[in-house]
Amino acid sequence: MSQYNITNSPDRVQVWDLGVRLFHWSLVAMVALAFLFDEPRKLHRTLGYVVIGLIAFRLVWGVIGPRHARFVDFIPGPRRLLDYLRDMLRGREDRHLGHNPAGAAMILVLLTTLSAVGATGYMMGMDAYFGQVWVENTHKLLVDILLVMVAFHVGGVIFSSWRHRENLVVSMITGQKDLDDK
């Protein structure tokens, strides 16, 4: 069966719920737009507030959402993450129906970095921090770190898609993945 088939079948299963998928692609769009539109300031600030709202949604959804959306389902401990990374280097990592440990760790890094970008962006508009060079420099540094992390994320998606012969981008659009490893 084609991996692009979006109908449920015995060999395909719904993994990513609508909340996770809408969060993911909305976050991609809002971050990209905020990066592209530093001016006008009001638009940039509004996009930043939307990002903060999306993060708040994801934190709640990570507690109350369905199985594969919940943090307890996929956040690895340090040992599990290191074992997975070691197995990746050896070319024998397990395929995961939901997030793999490296992807889960990247989610934490991205959410944390985005939260810090949002916090420093918000601080730049507060009277107490307005015009403070260190706040603006920290904001810009965090954006640079975010861009590097996004590149790692995209690289990890490409690598994992290739290694396990599945299109993870399509899965994040349809929400479905094949049950078995190909």
Describe the structure.
The protein is mainly alpha-helical. It has a single domain, classed as Fumarate Reductase Cytochrome B subunit, CATH 1.20.950. The chain is 66% helix and 3% strand. It has 7 helices and 2 strands, in the order E-H-H-H-H-H-H-H-E. Helix 1 runs antiparallel to helix 2, helix 2 packs across helix 5 (101-124) and helix 5 runs antiparallel to helix 6 (133-163).
In brief:
By secondary structure, the protein is mainly alpha-helical. It is 66% helix and 3% strand.
Give the SSE map:
Layout: E1 12-14, H1 18-36, H2 41-64, H3 71-74, H4 78-89, H5 101-124, H6 133-163, H7 168-174, E2 176-178
Antiparallel strand pairs: 1-2
Structural descriptors:
mainly alpha, Fumarate Reductase Cytochrome B subunit
